[in-house]
Amino acid sequence: MSILGLKKKQPKTFKVKVITMDAEMEFSCEVKWKGKDLFDLVCRTVGLRETWFFGLRYTVKDTYAWLKQEKRVLDQEVPKDSPITFHFLAKFFPEKVKKQILDEEIFCSPEASVLLASYAVQAKYGDYDPNFHKPGFLAQDELLPKRVLMQYQMTADMWEEKITAWYAEHRGIARDEAEMEYLKIAQDLEMYGVSYFAITQNKRDTDLLLGVDAQGLHIYNPNSKLNPNKSFPWSGIRNISYSEKEFTIKPLDKKKEVFKFYSSQLRVNKLILQLCIGNHDLFMRRRKVDSIEVQQMKAQAKEEKARKKMERQILAREKQMREEAERAKEDMERRLFQLQDEARLANDALLRSEETADLLAEKAQIAEEEAKLLAHKAAEAEQDRQRLEVTAMKTKEEKRLMEQKMREAEQLAVKLVEQSERRLKEADHLKQDLTEAKDAERRAKQKLLEITKTTYPLIAAYSAPPAPPAPPEAADTAYDSAPSRLDFKDSDMKRLSMEIERERLEYMEKSKHLQDQLKELKTEIESLKLEEQQQQQGGVYSLRNEARGYVQEPAYAPHSNRNSAYMSQMGYFEEV
Question: What residues does the FERM domain cover (predicted)?
Answer without folding.
Answer: 1-287
